[in-house]
Amino acid sequence: MSTTTTESVEDDRLIVWFDIDNTLYSASSRISHAMGRRIHAYFVQLGHTHEEASELHLRYYIQYGLAIRGLVRHHDIDPLDFDRQCDGSLPLEDMIKFNPKTHKLLEDIDRTKVRVWALTNAYRPHAQRVLRILQLEDLIEGLVFCDYEMEDFVCKPEPEFYQLAMKKAGITDPSKCYFVDDNRANIDGAWAQGWSKCAHFCERGLEAMEGGRIKEIEKERAVGAAEEEKGVEIITDLEDLRVLWPEIFKK
Ligand SMILES: [Mg+2]
């Protein structure tokens, strides 16, 4: 085989993608609730009544996966201003903290066989801030985020977003991808792309917490999702991954 020095060899390790929000920290932190309140206030600030704000928020979430995409498309807002006012204003340092168990879990993944990346629908500043507070920055090798600055940016569960993620990680074989997310539609999206092992994180004890309609939607199956899903598993604790995917951990 002839190779030149500029030709790069594909990294043939597996890659485990972790969602960030409500996956790498507990949803009991109520960050999504606080985020939702800020997004609602943003709609109100644009001149909508509380009723319209709730309706538009939900509609854009269902239609576009993220409220901000509807806001950019239909209200001509500045996405960076939105990000500053919503995610940027969250007192994250008071809401989440270092979790030794999650840290150890990522540390125990065998890096000779596996790469660990994050795949989030948040914009970069929020994602980096969360990883910094959780002290997971050094254990996450790559970050694929939603680029709010790009016109018509894509997000999970759109096929293009998973394809973009693979491109960024420099892999062409989707069967090398493992994925953990608390949002069922995101799992179905990854599965549809041929990502071989997918774990839907349904945190234990969350049923007692009211999450509102958006939380309910996150648990629902995507319309037309494949019935046969040998690779899709439900986990209630990230520790379950040790049993589910022993091949990715150090012996
Ligand atoms: Mg999430």
From TrEMBL:
Organism: Hypsizygus marmoreus (White beech mushroom)
PANTHER family for this protein: PHOSPHATE METABOLISM PROTEIN 8-RELATED
SUPFAM superfamilies: HAD-like
Protein name: Uncharacterized protein C24B11.05
GO BP: nucleotide catabolic process; pyrimidine nucleobase metabolic process
InterPro entries: HAD-like_sf, HAD-SF_hydro_IA, HAD_sf, Pyr-5-nucltdase, SSM1_domain
Molecular function per GO: nucleotidase activity
